[in-house]
Here is the input.
Amino acid sequence: MKNQNLALALANSGFYEFKRQVAYKANWYGTIHTIVNTFYPSNKT
Here is the structure.
């Protein structure tokens, strides 16, 4: 990861906490938060 501060924050908190925070903030601001499957072929279509 290029951004050291972001990389350190993600490494310390773990991805579950990051996912939880993104969902919380999306709900707070009224935006759409979509969870995509790991094997979704997003760049192969």
Observations:
- The CA atoms of residues 8 and 43 lie 27 Å apart.
- The chain is about 60% helix and 0% strand.
- The two ends are 26 Å apart (CA to CA).
- The mean pLDDT is 80.
